[in-house]
Amino acid sequence: MLDLTHIHPMIVHFPIALLLVGFMSDLIGLVTRRAFFNHCGFYLLILGTVGVVAAYLSGEYAGDGMPEAGAMGQALELHESAAELTLWLVSGTALVRIAAVLLKKYKGVVKAVALLLFLVGVLSVARTGYYGGELVFKHAAGVQLDLGIDFGALGGDDVD
């Protein structure tokens, strides 16, 4: 049966991919001056922002049962802090971009600032993902080991 704490690791890959591809699309649009790539970057930023919100909320739920002491607690705190910063950066970037597009000001300096904000948001997502990866691969957060061995059948009921 699916445990709701498994939702977070399934969701986190979407904002990573959407925001990275969106940023790359904006860069291609800047170099080629093709509006298509800027439009793709805009919509991928919006979708990626929705993904960041979903990842943040699911992460809050998934982290509720985690031990908050020792090295695991420190790693969890780093990941949570990075995720909160990412949430604010990416949301702010999306709001700036939406305002610029709606006000028809997405050009020149505004475009450069929006692209720089997008880069900072993508770097923040990468940092958050790095800390999340450390939680799993270094501290085994959320890892459940089941070797399929019935220790009772081996003749020892008091095996630790």
Describe the structure.
The chain is an all-alpha fold and 160 residues long. It has one domain (4-140). Helices cover 72% and strands 0% of the residues. It has 5 helices and no strands. It has helices at residues 7-11, 13-32, 35-62, 70-102, 108-137. Helix 2 runs antiparallel to helix 5 (108-137). The radius of gyration is 20 Å and the shape is elongated.
Brief summary of the model shown:
Helix content is 72%, strand content 0%.
List keywords for this structure.
160 residues; mainly alpha; 0% strand
What layout of secondary structure does this protein have?
Blueprint: H1 7-11, H2 13-32, H3 35-62, H4 70-102, H5 108-137
Helix pairs in contact: 2-3, 2-5, 3-4, 4-5
Distance between the termini: 26 Å
Tally of separate domains = 1
Mean pLDDT, to the nearest integer, reads 89
Mass-distribution shape = elongated
Query: Could you estimate the helical fraction of the residues in percent?
Result: over 70%
Structural class: mainly alpha
Protein name: DUF2231 domain-containing protein
Domain DUF2231: 7-144
Organism: Pontiella agarivorans
InterPro entries: DUF2231_TM
